[in-house]
Amino acid sequence: MLMGRILSLTVLMAASLVLTACAARPEAPGLSEYGRYHCGQLEIRLTPAENSHLLGLEYLDRRILMKPSPAQAGALYVAPGDASTQFLARGDRATFTLKGEVLPECLEPGAVAFPFDAIGAEPEWSAVLDGKRLSLTPPYQQETIDELWLTQTQANRHGRVWEVKGGNHQVAVRVASQLCETGLEQRQYPAQIRLTLDGNDFQGCGGDRQRLFRGVHWVVEDLAGTGLIDRSLVTLKFMDNGRVAGRASCNHFMGSYALQPDGLSFSALAGTRMACAPALMNQERRYLELLEAVVDGRIGRHGELELVTGSGEVIRAFPASTDNL
Question: Which of 234, 268, 296, 303 is most buried, by the most CB atoms less than 10 A from its CB?
Fold first, then answer.
C-alpha cells in the first residue's frame, strides 16, 4: 500500500528550535506566541527591541526594526522610511511584504493555510478544508460529502486537529507540518495528513506545494553533475503569479514557472545581455537550457532543491543564507 511518507524538512526545522529557545517572545497583541513564522521556505523571527516600542524582525542575516502602525485588523508594522516593507500579523498567520514583494502567507509553527487540499493514495481519497467546513470524497466512493462542519480540537507547533461534531459520520483530520510524499510518483507536499473516518484511519498529504519552493533565493551548486565555476553565482527565485527570476552566471533573467500535479516546468526565460568571459557565458547557456528542460522539482533530504529534466539531469541548489545576493 502506498502511503504518505514523511520526510524531515531540514531547511524549515533545523536551526529554528535553537533560535526560538534563545529569543524572547513578542508580547504585542496579534503576534504568534511562538515568535516566529514560516513564509514558505523563509523563516522569520520576531523579537522586541530593547527600550523601544519597535519590533525586531529577523530573517537570514538581516534584522529590521519595524514601527507599529494603525490597522483595521491584526498588528501592522512598517519599516521606518520604507513603506514597501510591512508585516501584518493576525495571530497564527501573517503577511510579509519585503521591498514591495509579497511573500507566501506566513504561518506560525503548526498553522495551516486555507483553503487546504488533501489527497491520499491506495485507497484514493480527497478533501478540502476551509477552516470551518470539510468537503470530503471518502475512500472507495465517488460522491463528495459536503457541509461537514469542523471544530478545531488541538493546535500546537506540530500541527492542527479538527473534528466533525454531529452528523452521520465520525470524522477527524490531523495535519502535521512535515514534508510528505504520496502516490506512484511520490509527489511532495508540505504537510502530512491522517484522516479518521468512522473509526478507520487513512494516510495522505496536503497543502500548497508552492510553499516548498517559494520564499527564498536558491543558490545553485551543481549543474547536472558538473559543478560551477569558482566564485560564479547562479540563483533561482520562485515569486508570486507564476514568475521566476535569478542570476544565470553573468546576466540576470526572468521568466515563468508552472507547478502542476504532474510536475514543474519553466518557460519564457529571458535576460539581460551583458557579455562576460566565455566560460561564464557557456555556463549561463547551459543553466538556462537545463531550466527549460525541467519537468519536475522536489526537496531533498538535506533541504536542497532538485530540479529534474526529462532526461534525468539534475540542477541542485540550496537556500541562500544571506539576503545580499
Answer: 234
Whether 6-107 shares its CATH topology with 217-319 is answered yes
Q: What distance in Å separates the CA atoms of residue 298 and residue 124, rounded to the nearest whole number?
A: 22
Kindly list the domain boundaries of the chain, sorted by start residue.
6-107, 111-209, 217-319
Q: How far apart are the C-alpha atoms of 228 and 221, rounded to whole Å?
A: 6
Range 6-107: architecture per CATH:
Beta Barrel (2.40)
What is the distance between the alpha carbons of residues 69 and 57, in angstroms, rounded to a whole number? Answer: 15
pLDDT tens for each residue of the chain, 325 residues long? 434 444 434 333 333 333 333 444 556 668 999 999 999 999 999 998 887 889 999 999 999 999 999 988 889 999 999 999 999 999 999 999 999 999 999 999 999 999 999 999 989 999 999 989 999 999 998 899 988 999 999 999 999 999 997 778 899 999 999 999 998 888 999 999 999 999 999 999 999 999 999 999 999 999 999 999 999 999 999 999 999 999 999 999 999 999 998 899 999 999 999 999 999 999 999 999 999 999 999 999 999 999 999 999 999 999 999 999 8
The rounded distance, in Å, linking the Cα atoms of 29 and 68 is 11
Q: Which residues contact 187 (CB under 8 A, 6 or more apart)?
A: 181, 205, 209, 261
Round to whole Å and give the CA distance between 310 and 183: 19
DSSP string for 241-272: GGEEEEE-SSSEEEEEEEEETTEEEEEEEEE-
Q: Please state, as a whole number, how many other Cβ atoms lie within 10 Å of the Cβ of residue 294.
A: 19
